[in-house]
Specification:
The protein has about 180 residues and is an alpha/beta fold. The protein is built from three helices and six strands; from the N terminus they run H-E-E-H-E-E-E-E-H. Strands 1, 2, 3, 4, 5 and 6 form a six-stranded mixed beta sheet that branches. About 10% of the residues have low confidence.
Length: about 180
């Protein structure tokens, strides 16, 4: 087989073809956009009621943490006014804490005590248009997980589960507001 060499014109043509292919690839890729800019909710809405989440767990006051975090996220990231009265709101966001589980993750090698645990929370959320009673957003099983550390030193013992639940409530609320307001 004879050795074939490309002339200068063929190399330029090959380079131009490659440049066009790369440009087409980037121009046709997914349409990313800045979070919080694309509204998925009706434009006529001004108010959303967020009643206290329902707590199906034995965990005391976990629904208050999650409800407060969701209210805070809606206030910070949207234009909607959050009110308490579901009857006078344009929409109502209902939430429910379905379950909370804690599982040991890391043990101390010398004592055998748990040093890190994983907490998992399952929630259910529905956003309903008050005028049409149509469900605008629904997720029957939003799952969130977070690790927390357990101190083995009795003198400096600090229960880390509460801060872990606060972090989880913030993460949950940020994800929920994104899901509700974005067109994903």
């Amino acid at each position: 087989m004879p050795h074939r060499r490309c002339n200068k014109t063929q190399r330029l043509s090959l380079g131009a073809t490659l440049a066009v292919a790369v440009a087409v690839f980037f121009l046709s890729s997914c349409g990313y956009h800045v979070a919080g800019r694309a509204a998925n909710l009706p434009s006529e809405w001004k108010t959303i009621a967020i009643p206290a989440f329902k707590n199906d767990t034995t965990r005391y006051r976990i629904e208050q943490r999650f409800t407060a975090a969701v209210i805070r996220q809606f206030i910070q990231r949207t234009k909607y006014r959050i009110i308490q009265d579901p009857e006078s709101a344009d929409a109502v966001l209902h939430g429910e804490i379905l379950s909370i589980e804690t599982a040991p993750v890391i043990f101390d090698a010398t004592t055998g005590q748990v040093t890190t645990s994983l907490v998992t929370v399952h929630t259910k959320v529905t956003l309903v248009d008050n005028q049409t009673q149509k469900t605008v957003y629904e997720n029957d099983d939003m799952v969130f997980r977070d690790e927390y550390q357990i101190s083995s030193d009795v003198q400096s013992f600090f229960e880390e589960q509460d801060p872990a639940l606060d972090r989880m409530a913030r993460d949950f609320s940020a994800q929920l507001v994104s899901n509700v307001t974005e067109k994903f």
